[in-house]
Amino acid sequence: MSDAGAPAAAPPPEPVRIGIVSISDRASTGVYQDQGLPALQDWLGAALINPISFQPRLIPDERALIARTLRELVDDAGCDLVLTTGGTGPSPRDVTPEATLDVADRELPGFGEQMRQISLHFVPTAILSRQVAVIRGKALIVNLPGQPKAIAETLSGHDAAPGIFAAVPYCIDLIGGPYLETRDDVCAAFRPKNARRPAR
Ligand SMILES: Nc1ncnc2c1ncn2[C@@H]1O[C@H](COP(=O)(O)OP(=O)(O)OP(=O)(O)O)[C@@H](O)[C@H]1O
Ligand SMILES: Nc1nc2c(c(=O)[nH]1)N[C@H]1C(S)=C(S)[C@@H](COP(=O)(O)O)O[C@H]1N2
In order of start, what are the domains of the chain with their CATH numbers? Predict the structure, then answer.
């Protein structure tokens, strides 16, 4: 039978390379078991339809090492997206935002603003979190708080506020990365109509 006239089958989802970085003095030295990397991997694996190649890193709260790790993930490992967790608070060892700005080409303040709004719904101490999001080359780097439960809270949001991940696929389109497709029950990605490909 001919397929003439039938709509073209959607191309397979594009592969994406994602750096996940857990920044914690105690988890990186074995004082407690790291829960940051598994939480990031679980959430992203559930949310994205694209095949994901994870680049995981577990490191202490050292500014130069964090910056070096972010550069390596983007410039050498070729990550399209890097999510960090931890080190965003006000204590002297919390230096993740500074290290992230050290490697930034440009800052995207909306991510931090939205994240703090979402987190206020869960904890009043959300205002202590100094997360930033930046572009380096063709990659987006986003800081998340260190509490393992904060990862799903900030990425998914809640009834009154969409999670910050909703804006990630379109951002990655705009900076030249792969077309990210999400499972709507975990996270409905927002794209303007003219940027959407046909749904699967
Ligand atoms: N990677 C992690 N794995 C498991 N639990 C974590 C992790 N990071 C943080 N937590 C938990 O969240 C709490 C607050 O995180 P925060 O990033 O402020 O830790 P911290 O006091 O800077 O210490 P550290 O850097 O040693 O994790 C920690 O006290 C810990 O209970
Ligand atoms: N969604 C969410 N955001 C949160 C939290 C949380 O539990 N859930 N903890 C807050 C606390 S107590 C602090 S100190 C800051 C910074 O955390 P970090 O240093 O672990 O990155 O994140 C805040 N943001």
Answer: 16-191 (3.40.980.10)
